[in-house]
Design brief:
Elements (H helix, E strand, L loop, with lengths): L2 E5 L5 E5 L34 E2 L1 H10 L3 H16 L4 E5 L2 E6 L2 E8 L4 E5 L19 E5 L6 H12 L7
Antiparallel strand pairs: 1-2, 3-4, 4-5, 5-6, 6-7, 7-8
Helix pairs in contact: 1-2, 2-3
Length: 168
């Protein structure tokens, strides 16, 4: 426990534990939600959402996406759900993930000027998404305002969902 030095009446230093000090303020638990219930936006406007499995955390993430990104987030989610019946959803590392029982095939994340979609086996998709990664099989799709090609995205989702999933 943290201690600080104090002096008693004889002038000799004494140790006082942090638990016994009246000026100690309890710290908020790391990763806990803000008390107001308001979602914090991280750098680039990415929502800070507690990790969780299922549709509810993903919908909370999408609802907290800023401005035009929220509309695209809704469209991405709707396309994925329509293309992959029974898709598995979760939020990990402040990012929605989509997968099947054997692993994850896609995630997306907000940045200041675009949404980055990650295809974990992207080099196996036809055509291959343009965004490269330091991970050999991963490819990215950067979606800016008004640039979502729904037909191409739907086709990539269909292909990606049929590939072996990534275990994270």
């Amino acid at each position: 426990m943290a201690e600080r030095s104090t002096e008693n009446t004889t002038g000799t230093p004494q140790r006082k534990s942090a638990a016994s000090r009246s000026d100690t303020v309890p710290k908020k638990a790391k990763g806990s939600a803000p008390e107001s219930g308001k979602v914090t936006l991280l750098s680039g406007g990415n929502p800070q959402i507690p990790k969780g499995d299922g549709d509810a955390p993903v919908q909370a993430y999408i609802k907290a996406m800023p401005e035009w990104k929220q509309d695209i987030g809704r469209r991405l989610d709707a396309i994925i759900v329509a293309t992959v019946p029974g898709v598995r959803k979760a939020v990990k590392w402040n990012t929605p993930f989509y997968g099947k029982s054997e692993g994850w095939f896609l995630s997306f994340h907000c940045f200041t000027k675009y949404i980055k979609v990650t295809f974990f086996r992207g080099t196996s998709l036809k055509p291959i998404p343009q965004g490269t990664s330091k991970h050999p099989e991963v490819r990215y799709l950067d979606i800016r305002k008004g640039e979502l090609d729904e037909a191409q995205f739907r086709d990539w989702v269909r292909q990606a969902s049929q590939l072996p999933g990534e275990k994270l």
